[in-house]
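Run folding on both entries below.
>entry_1
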Amino acid sequence: LSPQINMTLVEQIHNEGVKINSYPFKLYTLDTKGEPQVVISIPKRLFKRAVKRNLLRRRTREAVRALRPSFEILDKKDILLVYISNNILDYDSIKTGLQNSFAKIQ
């Protein structure tokens, strides 16, 4: 999970990728052309305070890190995760939601 975000990659995943809705995330996937990347987006529209967005980003990043060994498909895809819930969910809920989302990836 790289902190550097390539905006052209984000736009490419968003425009050309496969969209999967799975609460609490909207997931966009695209076959990777290099090292696979995971981009986490927590919209400012949903959470005005950066502290809340950072909390959700940290929880999501940790859940992705914990689930990565279980889903080998993640090593072949670029993924854009967009948080869509209006509530701040706990780590277990986020991890379960990501598990369900990753299971839907083909």
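>entry_2
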Amino acid sequence: ISSRYIICEYFGVSVMQENRLVWVDCLKFLAIIGVIGIHVSSSLLSEDILFSPNWFQGVFVGSLFRFAIILFVMASAYLLLRNQQSIYVIPFRIKRILLPFIFWLIV
């Protein structure tokens, strides 16, 4: 049994797709933990008590978890651009990512 199947079985991930990249899934898992850390640390930030020790702690912890956003962008870009494809296909594939991004940016 390969380590890939052990890892997937441990996390309860189905291994039905043979072309799935486990290392990208692990990076996305780390990014999810980072996003949770960003949201949790934002609860320490309050406008009432600026520059208090809790505020500095919230800013510091939030800064530690900012890697998550870049990690999601890099994983999406890798999955989007890893295959050899025609130059005419790339704008349609990028639009698939940019439209939801712009929507959530506005919301």
